[in-house]
TrEMBL record:
Belongs to the manganese catalase family. Residues 271-280 have a biased composition (Basic and acidic residues). Keywords: Plasmid. This is Catalase. Residues 221-280 are annotated as: Disordered. It holds the Pfam family Mn_catalase.
Length: 280
């Protein structure tokens, strides 16, 4: 169940509308690092949790709803950057050349398809896809995915902050960057509450995996290289269940030979059709 209030989660102001920046902000809405991704990701992760995980479901849903508010903030920012120009700016754009320049600085579909409004697309105009969403049904795996999502989202927000000189946009992005800081930390803290979450899934019996390579860094160089002595080639693994080791070459065995194709596929270049055979 959802409720809504007729106000933004955080005030959004634009002092100097900038159609080009509106195009860049679209990445934070419908891009792979955007708010649509994390909002839906957290929802689908929450909906997959069984009974007994109420605190995690609440954490995910609370954050998902907050991310919906971020989408609303960014959509408002895009619209304010596309519309509401000062009178002198509006007068300038009456000139054909200035109008053309303004149009090339924004996503044309923001004008043609949305009437100078935000859209569920990225900065290149590519529609949002559910393929961005990581919701595996495994809580530990999903929490790791959430750390990554917030990390890339925060990186995008900081780049947008660096790009703009508009005080209102910097203020809004500063808020979003701060929330990404919180969300990264809350997912990391949630991982700490799980018992032995790695390797994911922790429920699979490790004795069933190949014990010869489960903690071995395997070099893929053509010429054998000595153990470089990196933390991931020697010493105890972070999960505390194994010791890292180093292999200078891959195991290697077998040949890359495909089985014979089914005649119905017509994949055999040496197969002669019955009609060809009868004509000989």
């Amino acid at each position: 169940m959802f409720f809504q209030e007729p106000e933004l989660q955080y005030e959004v102001t634009v002092e100097q509308p900038d159609p080009h920046f509106a195009k860049l902000l679209q990445q934070a809405i419908g891009g792979q690092e955007g708010e649509m991704r994390v909002a839906l990701q957290y929802m689908f992760q929450a909906w997959a949790l069984p009974e007994g995980y109420e605190e995690y479901r609440n954490l995910l849903m609370e954050t998902a709803a907050e991310e919906l508010g971020h989408i609303e903030m960014l959509a408002s920012a895009v619209t304010k950057n596309l519309r509401g120009s000062p009178k002198e700016m509006s007068e300038e754009t009456q000139d054909t050349a200035a109008t053309a320049a303004a149009m090339t600085g924004q996503n044309p579909r923001q004008f043609l398809s949305a009437g100078e409004s935000a859209m569920p697309v990225d900065s290149n105009g590519v529609p949002f896809t559910g393929g961005y969403i990581a919701a595996s049904g495994n809580l530990a795996g999903d929490l790791y995915a959430n750390v990554m999502a917030e990390a890339t989202g925060r990186t995008l927000a900081t780049r947008l902050w660096e790009y703009t000189d508009d005080p209102g946009m910097k203020d809004m992005l500063s808020y979003l960057i701060a929330r990404d800081t919180m969300h990264q930390n809350q997912w990391l803290e949630a991982l700490e509450t799980l018992d032995d979450p790695v390797p994911v899934p922790a429920s699979f019996p490790q004795e069933q995996e190949n014990q010869d390579v489960n903690y071995t860094f395997i070099s893929t160089r053509r010429e054998a290289q000595p153990d470089p002595g990196y933390p991931w080639t020697e010493g105890e693994a972070p999960d505390g269940k194994g010791q890292f080791s180093y292999a200078a070459e891959q195991p290697g065995d077998g040949e890359v030979i495909a089985p014979q194709p089914d005649p119905m596929t017509n994949n055999d270049p040496n197969r002669t059709s019955e009609s060809d055979e009868s004509s000989k």
